[in-house]
Amino acid sequence: MKFKFTALLWVRRAVLATGVLAVLVFFGVQPLRASARSEGNAFIRIVHASPDVGIVDVFVDGNRLLSSFQFATVTGYVPLPAGSHRIQVALIGTGVNAAVMERTIDTSLDGAYTVAALGTKATGFSINVFTDNNLISGHGTKVRLYHLSPGTGSVRVDVGAKAIISGLAYQQVSDYVAIPAGTYTFQVTVVPQDTTVPFSATLQPWTVTSVFAIGLFNGHPKLELVSAQVAGIPHMPATGSDPRPQPAASYPLAPWLVGLLVALAISAAIALQRLTFVSRRAALLPGK
């Protein structure tokens, strides 16, 4: 009788364990909802690179996104619903109807964009949009230069004796340059004047560093290099360009695994039922 009671207890435990396993596996490998991964968003960051405009307010679709936004400032990425958006820049406190520059931009799902306010009174003001790519391969890093300095002429970037970027003109952006993580001194040379501006930065692993040439080579405010570093996105299929950290991937539940779990649960339940019946019958027999 003691043996049968022990067997009954173990079968009950097996049924409970099978049920718990089925729940854990089912919920642990369900496909990730699209809303949890991207929420239907694109991502933009704003750069104030217009020397003559001064402090501004920035509006998106008529709503204020930034207040008191100063020259030579770069924001982090902010999410926006993917699609078309109206970007407007106005002098501080003057309101959206007094915008001095505006542009409609088109964004795609999980796309990352740099929106730059550019120009001077002499050249005119404008908004430029650059498509970013924050994917990183391996454990390295990459760097990119945005030439946003009016009247400066083309630039070249050297690391040591090697030119990594050359012939970059105003309102252009370089290709991404993949280099090992580490601390570097970049020599940014204004080619027509043969004048070099050194710039030092520590490139952390798994990051993307953007360097913005902002200001005036001949004038005020002076030419300066402003950097922004963001965490990279592992270069794997279907990761997109979302600059935010991504949730851990999950996978659909295989049909054969569902069948196996169901079969185990049914078999354990039948065994429990039979053993319970045998135990009760044995308890009713004389001398038991």
Please supply descriptive tags for the structure shown above.
single chain, 288 residues, alpha+beta, Immunoglobulin-like, four-stranded mixed β-sheet, four-stranded antiparallel β-sheet, 41% strand, disordered N terminus
H/E element sequence:
HHEEEEEEEEEEEEEEEEEEH
Which class do the helix and strand fractions yield?
alpha+beta
Task: Give the strand tally.
Answer: 18
Instruction: Calculate the mean pLDDT score and round it.
Output: 81
CATH topology of the largest domain: Immunoglobulin-like
Strand residue content: 35-45%
Number of helices: 3
Shape: flat
Strand order of the largest sheet: 4-1-7-8
The number of domains? 3
Query: What would CATH call the architecture of the largest domain?
Result: Sandwich
Kindly provide the name of the CATH class of the largest domain.
Mainly Beta
Q: Biggest β-sheet: count, sense, barrel?
A: 4 strands, mixed
Percent of residues in helices: 10-25%
Distance between the termini: 8 Å
Low-confidence stretches: 1-5, 20-37, 237-242, 244-254
Cα radius of gyration in angstroms: 31 Å
Can you describe this structure?
The chain has three helices and 18 strands. Strands 4-1-7-8 form a four-stranded mixed sheet, with no helix packed on it. A four-stranded antiparallel sheet has the order 3-2-5-6, with no helix packed on it. Helix 1 packs antiparallel against helix 3. Mean pLDDT is 81; it is low at 1-5, 20-37, 237-242 and 244-254. By secondary structure, the protein is of the alpha+beta class. A hairpin with a 3-residue loop joins strand 7 and strand 8 (124-132). The longest helix has 30 residues, at 255-284. It has three domains: 40-132, Immunoglobulin-like, CATH 2.60.40; 133-246, Immunoglobulin-like, CATH 2.60.40; 255-288. The chain has helices at residues 2-28, 34-37, 255-284, and strands at residues 41-48, 56-60, 63-69, 78-81, 83-91, 101-107, 112-120, 124-132, 135-136, 141-147, 155-159, 162-168, 177-179, 182-190, 195-203, 207-214, 224-231, 233-234. Helix content is 21%, strand content 41%. It is flat, with a radius of gyration of 31 Å.
